[in-house]
Amino acid sequence: MNLLLRNVRPYGEEPVDVLVDDGVIAEIGSGLAGDEVVDGEGAVLLPGLVDLHTHLREPGREDAETVESGSAAAALGGYTAVFAMPNTEPAADTAGVVEQVWRLGRETGLVDVAPIGAVTVGRAGTQLAELGAMADSAAGVRVFSDDGSCVADPALMRRALEYVRAFDGVIAQHAEEPRLTAGAQLNEGVVSARLGLTGWPAAAEEAIIARDALLAGHVGSRLHVCHVSTAGSVEIIRWAKSKGWQVTAEVTPHHLVLTDELAESYDPVFKVNPPLRTQVDVDALREGLADGTIDCVATDHAPHAAEDKESEWGAARPGMLGLQTALSVVIETMVLPGRLSWRDVASRMSEVPARIGRLAGHGRPLEVGEPANLVLVDPQARWTVDPAALVSKSRNTPFAGRTLPGRVRATVLRGRLTSRDGAVLPGFGRQVSYNRPGDQNRVGARA
Amino acid sequence: MNRHLLSAGDLDRATAVDILDTAERLDHALAGREVKKLPPLRGRTVVNLFYEDSTRTRTSFELAAKRLSADVVNFSAKGSSVSKGESLKDTALTLEAMGSDAVVVRHSYSGAAHRLAEWVHGSVINAGDGTHEHPTQALLDAFTMRRRLRGGEGDLAGLRVVIVGDVLHSRVARSNVLLLATLGASVTLVAPPTLLPVGVDAWPAATGFDLDAVLPASDVVMMLRVQRERMTESYFPSAREYARRYGLDARRMAMLHDDAIVMHPGPMNRGMEIAAEVADDPKRSTIVEQVTNGVSVRMAVLYLLLGGADE
């Protein structure tokens, strides 16, 4: 059975019909016919989104998220591929664990789940994990990170950068000098001073980025900087790129719009690492994303169980949900104000992250013969974020109650609809069981 | 007055002066009585929820509540809520179910009182949250300054206050800066630069590093406790150097004008931030007086928060 996307606008341009058959784009034209039809009503068609940075919490914290529930959130958010960070329990630092995560992703079949391997054993920052074994595994790992922790030891970081060149890998660094952030809770500045929360200085991020950029330049390796959050970091990355070094960077949706003043409520839903910064930083991040200094948007989707957030600020875990709101935040902060075109969105949220992660079949042009990994978004429609209606197992969205532009009309993975008008559609694999009774987004429910 | 007292910044001038006036009235009402008890909070329940050891603050609140005839329950949750196992929220719901009218909370995490206020229907009084605030300490300090230097009336307009020491980690300093600004005093913070927070420029206070330079023009010198552990974290090189540069000794005390007073929230590190002869100076030191005034001010806060004024 083929699938027809009728009256859709590739990259927001002229409306066409797109026929998908056998997992690829079979025909682009007008007046086409198909078996299953989605009437796009002029919605924007983009390559399926690719997220370089998610926490799917499996194995270990299946109460907060699973590969299944995270995949469902991704499908609803317009993603066709997500990279899963290795800070699980146990850490994904062996071929066995990354293959497990990869296999769970395949079985769910809603998005391609690409595991990220830990750089060091147990993410402890002392000894290299078996990076080659993870690269050679069925998961084919190309991105390595100790995210949540920084590879702080400069000699170890240098070796990791060098070592992964053998299989075209990249080190994705969580840039945080730990000696400068002991006990840190919030961006160090006016707000942290007033609230009596231990400050997380911008310099702790910038110092590591500068150091790692120099190392990457020195040994000719690929460095990817996770969740850039400060104006100074943008400047340093701009400088590193001007040298011709292979340095790429991502920004999260929340750092594009939220500031540290939200911490005044002491509600830990706004606690995240790196922390929310100031409006000056937000403006610099938007500018950096617009001019390409920052290569891509990645969610840092970080689900947490209620008890890890319904607490004192200092006791709460850092992190925010992101998969179901990312595209809307990018539309609001970057597309509607004219900072990014839809072609740019395709680049920053699909093509470039797929390239950084060396992920085949994603982030491809919308052309005949290309894999049918697609997202259809109605940029006019607005919706109000209701934490209880999110399909993630956790509720820690910082956007609760906010009305955002952009509804995902449909997500297509290799020619099959994975979400349509807010409902998750069944994957390739076994029937999944994460839904709560009465959940309208229930897997298996037809729109 | 609001339902809660979470931050000294919540108080406007009129409310703050009303608390101080009420404390004076309650103080006078009790003076000379054989039985130190007034009836207004009879039948009300006040819970002291202390996640940190603080005998002096807990005892002060307990005495204040009992002198107003409230029932007092001490709920001591030693260690953090996390290490204890029960969450702050669950504890809040438990207290709520027991029918507490007010919760006095001391906690090692900044913002804990704010969180608690979202989960209980009764009043929450912040008795110190992490390195954030300690509003009743600021009120008792203001009460003490007003009695000594303003005849126990009005606000503190024109009063020159210098606060010395570990401002970075001090909830006493944060609450005092806010309240003193509201009451019209001018505040100067003196500390080694390592112990002033980044962002202090936005506070309604001047800052400086030279204690000798500001003492002659000060009416009040408030010394903050400096923990010796700060030394091992490289905030300053040694106790001796700290005492020499920022401690209040007899030489420095002699630089003050005749009416100037010396305050300390306690507990003191004698020989570190304050010399024994200064702490015990009968004319200038208000340290013991602050403790006495603490009970009066906390009575006023409980009285006003729990609606005693309406009865």
How many E strands of chain A?
A: 18
Question: Structural class of the helices, strands and pairings of chain B?
Answer: alpha/beta
Radius of gyration of chain B: 19 Å
User: What name does CATH use for the topology of the largest domain in chain B?
Assistant: Rossmann fold
CATH topology of the largest domain in chain A: TIM Barrel
What is the class of the largest domain in chain B in the CATH system?
Alpha Beta
Q: In order across it, which strands form the biggest sheet of chain B?
A: 7-6-5-8-9
Integer average pLDDT of chain B: 93
Runs of chain B in which pLDDT lies below 50 for 5 or more consecutive residues are: none
- Count structural domains of chain A: 2
Total strand segments of chain B? 9
The percentage helix of chain A is 25-40%
CATH A-level architecture of the largest domain in chain A: Alpha-Beta Barrel
Order of helices and strands of chain A: EEEEEHEHEHEHEEHEHEHEHEHHEEEE
How far is the N terminus from the C terminus of chain A? 18 Å
So, the CATH homologous superfamily of the largest domain in chain B? Aspartate/ornithine carbamoyltransferase
Strand fraction of chain A: 15-25%
Strand order of the largest sheet of chain A: 3-2-1-4-15-16-17-18
Describe this entry's structure for a reader.
The complex is a heterodimer of chains A (447) and B (311). Chain A is α/β, with parallel strands linked by helices and 447 residues long. Chain A contains ten helices and 18 strands. Chain A has helices at residues 67-77, 95-108, 131-136, 154-163, 190-195, 202-219, 231-242, 279-291, 326-335, 342-356; strands at residues 3-10, 16-21, 24-29, 36-47, 49-54, 79-84, 112-115, 143-144, 170-173, 186-187, 199-200, 223-225, 247-251, 296-297, 374-384, 403-413, 416-420, 423-424. An eight-stranded mixed beta sheet of chain A has the order 3-2-1-4-15-16-17-18. In chain A, strands 8-9-12-13-14 form a five-stranded parallel beta sheet. In chain A, strand 16 and strand 17 (416-420) form a beta hairpin. The longest helix of chain A has 18 residues, at 202-219. Chain A starts with a strand and ends in a 23-residue tail after the last strand. The relative contact order of chain A is 0.16. Mean pLDDT of chain A is 95; it is low at 429-447. Chain B has a five-stranded parallel beta sheet with strand order 7-6-5-8-9, covered by helices on one side. In chain B, helix 2 (55-67) packs across helix 13 (287-305), helix 6 packs across helix 7 and helix 6 (135-149) crosses helix 13. The radius of gyration of chain B is 19 Å and the shape is globular. The chains are: A alpha/beta (447), B alpha/beta (311).
